[in-house]
Amino acid sequence: MAASHHLEPLITDLGLILMTAGVALLLFKKIRQPVVLGYLIAGFLAGNHFDFFPSVTDMKSVEVWAEIGVIFLLFSLGLEFSFKKLVKVGGTASVTALTQILFMVFAGYGVGRLMNWSTTDSLFLGVIVSISSTTIILKSFEELRVKTQQFAGNVLGALIVQDLLAILMMVLLATVAGATFSGGMIIQSVLELIFFLTLWFLGGIFFVPTLLKRVKPLLSNEMLLIISLALCLMMVILANNVGFSPALGAFVMGSIMAETTQAEHIEHLVRPVKDLFGAVFFVSVGMLIDPQALIQYAGPVALLTVLVIVGQSVSATGGALLSGQPLRQSVQTGMSLSQIGEFSFIIATMGASMGVTGNFLYPVVVAVSAVTTFTTPFMIKWSTPFADYLQQALPRKWVKSIERYSANAQSIRSASYWQIALRAYVLQIVVHSVIIVAAVLISKEYLLPLVQDYRFGRFIGAALTLVVISPFLYALALRRVAKKEVEALFQERKYRGPIIMMILFRFILTLFYIGFLLNYFFSPAVALIALVVSVVSYLLFPKKLNAQYHRIENHFLKNLNAREIIRAKRQRSDLTPWDGHMALIDIGQDSAILGKTLEELQLREKIGINIAFIKRADIVINIPSRNERLFPGDEVCIIGTDKQVLDFQKYLEDCELHSEYVEPESDIVLQQVELKNEDFIGKSIRESKIREQTRGLVVGLERSGKRILNPDSVEILEKGDILWIVGERKLLARLVEEKSPAQAPVVSATATS
Length: 753
Prior knowledge:
Layout: H1 2-30, H2 35-46, H3 59-81, H4 83-88, H5 90-114, H6 119-128, H7 134-144, H8 150-176, H9 183-214, H10 221-241, H11 246-257, H12 263-287, H13 291-296, H14 298-322, H15 327-336, H16 342-354, H17 361-393, H18 396-411, H19 417-451, H20 457-478, H21 483-490, H22 493-521, H23 524-540, H24 542-571, E1 580-586, H25 598-601, H26 603-606, E2 610-616, E3 619-622, E4 635-641, H27 642-654, E5 661-662, E6 668-674, H28 685-688, H29 690-694, E7 697-703, E8 706-709, E9 722-728, H30 729-739
Antiparallel strand pairs: 1-4, 1-5, 2-3, 2-4, 6-9, 7-8, 7-9
Helix pairs in contact: 1-2, 1-12, 2-12, 2-17, 3-11, 3-12, 5-6, 5-8, 5-14, 6-8, 6-16, 7-17, 8-9, 8-15, 8-16, 9-11, 9-19, 9-24, 10-11, 14-15, 14-17, 15-17, 16-17, 19-20, 19-21, 19-22, 20-22, 20-24, 22-23
């Protein structure tokens, strides 16, 4: 009975939350407003502050569901994040995000102090108002169909950097919020975060893809979902045990699984779970709002709303300009980032749960988020006309200076040899130091207590640990990195000293780590002797250590790059002899080619590509006729070589279009057919009426060892020709059955890019 009594309010409140979320979803979809805003308002009305709607019975249960929602929300954000994306975003997005966050942290802190808030409240406020909402921006981009525009790439890159910085600031705030803290504690927290993030990423990439690969034959959708969520919750427990927030663990595991070959599949399976608990989280956030606090703090809400909209827009625009972006794109980027969202809620919740912030901060933050969520689509929509207005209104001298700065910044592409070498050395030191220190600490914590009471137990424990870390010690001390750049630099006298110092530093650091380990197992005198023996052993067996290290490194790199390798193979899987493949490309909203027929465009004659289908909203036009026209927002599936696809992209860019590869979702396939039907022999492709009869498109012809990609319609067909035809699966199957029973087997289906 006790258990039933415990469960009843939890289940009842979950039912109320989901019912509220469902009503909000339907209503706000109908009026075409952001669903997140609907969740917040619905939760606010369903909270226990109002009597005219059903209310929750236990706010503790709401907090439980909200915490679960945070975990799965951040796990999904991690799946979209990936550390490799962070490396690829480049300096533009990084400068934009850093400028925005630094400006808003100081601005938010200053506004908080002006309102006579405490130092801690003001500090939390500064961090809260500095982080834009990934969820809201992505939904707005999809609704407004601007995801393929050039500024959107910079926005998404800035959001990736913001997500990582948000995690860092959460850790720092947890440190600062302690009873006592110092600069040393903050530095220690940052180092601990870097240490564990590096360790988790390296270990995760080494083991998780291998696990998924080994069990792949056994994986159903159900099993993959269970394993993914289990790994997420295991990392949540691990992060909590080492002193970090559970949300950090969920985010890290999501980013690890984003590097696996199953990432897209996992993201697809997890999406319903994310949507479910995301709705639970946002409704729960709304339920925790106190209307009395909103009335009392209406002035701060209005002030902070203006600060977020204006401050975020100005700082992000300034950051984009500083990174070398043109004025138009910079303004579009800045106005798109003018809101706060999920990370702000999480940080406000953290402050409230730790009891270090006032009760007023949480409802104020939620109110500001609700208003800025509502304004985000309008800010994105108005960004282009406002940018055009600025270009006309600003002094011509300023506009020219911005254009000149942008051109100069974007022309600086390559890093110097010294930068490359220094980056390689730092990466080498950090990665191997983390692995070695982690192995030593694990050995001290778990292995030493097991063996220290036995005769020669300490010796065996130290030897086992040294054997495990020996490849990494060798790599840290002796492995050459950035060989070409270091050799080029060594030819210049001024760089010889720094290079020699870096090599010596690595060697000394290796000796320190060996001594660090031996000190735990032996007395200082014995440790010194063991150190000498270890160094001599390493110098005697360099080849074996090098081979062992390369096996470990190759396994890691294989797991890390498996997703890209498979994607590259898919790009070449359809028309391998010709290097041809299918690619789906978005047609932008502004172009000189819109409204023209395919016959007028002459894409086959100019570029050599064929159009397999056109996707227009929910309609798919398979094998479009030459009279078909292109309209804004069309998705065109083209067939051609890598070069031809690139030429088509350049053609679109010349027409002021922005394109993006998307995975085809059509039933269009490529099929190989050996021509034996007498009705077709001796006729041209056009005269044979293959297209009219089958609604297929001949994209390849193979004859006597010669191959022709996208043959002309006047090409005469001969007996024994092998035709490659693109079309709907069912219609091509009918062609095979009726016209060519002796056809060659199907070799491929669709290809993505």
